[in-house]
Design brief:
The protein is mostly helical. It contains 8 helices and no strands.
């Protein structure tokens, strides 16, 4: 399930309650899982990139877990009233959308790289981070594995997309959620 979809869904739920800790834990869990998933994609496609990326990406997952632990300690032990509405990850439309996004990012990466060299790739990574981290991670990892770009350029592009995708969740909190919740999420 997309961590961005989880963030927007949970942010919408924040308008229905004043108890935000449980909701924040859900988003932090999604960010933690996203971090592990990015490392898995890198490991599967271009393991050489792990040398530069394992520490910064894993540190986000660890921080999400630590913050979640402290928030959990503050949550009252009562049954969850809020459920997150998520669609099945096994439907066809999300796969088609991901495929389209993946192709668009490959094309943008090639075009941007051709005309703007690594700056074009970095811009593509920044823009793709607004929506998805998987497609740019797979694209850039593949380019590095095929020696079309250096490991350093690939690692920088992935980090740009990763940081953008993580930070944009705070913005989505403001767009979709209660203001007080959004401030806590941004922090």
């Amino acid at each position: 399930v997309s961590s961005t979809a989880v963030t927007t869904s949970i942010s919408e739920k924040s308008k229905l309650t004043k108890e935000y800790n449980s909701l924040l834990i859900g988003i932090l869990a999604a960010i933690g899982v996203m971090s592990i998933r990015v490392l898995l994609w890198i490991f599967l496609v271009a393991p050489i990139l792990l040398v530069e990326l394992w520490l910064p990406i894993l540190s986000i997952s660890v921080m999400a877990a630590i913050i979640s632990f402290f928030l959990y300690k503050r949550v009252e032990k009562k049954s969850a009233k809020n459920k997150v509405d998520l669609s099945s990850p096994f439907t066809l439309m999300p796969a088609v959308k991901f495929g389209g996004l993946y192709l668009a990012i490959i094309a943008a990466s090639k075009i941007g790289g051709y005309y703007l060299q690594e700056k074009g790739l970095y811009l593509t990574a920044l823009l793709s981070g607004f929506v998805d981290i998987d497609a740019i991670t797979l694209t850039v990892s593949g380019l590095a594995q095929n020696n079309e770009i250096t490991s350093s350029i690939a690692a920088t592009a992935i980090l740009i997309a990763f940081v953008t995708n993580t930070a944009i969740k705070g913005v989505y909190g403001f767009v979709f959620g209660a203001r007080k919740f959004a401030v806590q999420l941004a922090v």
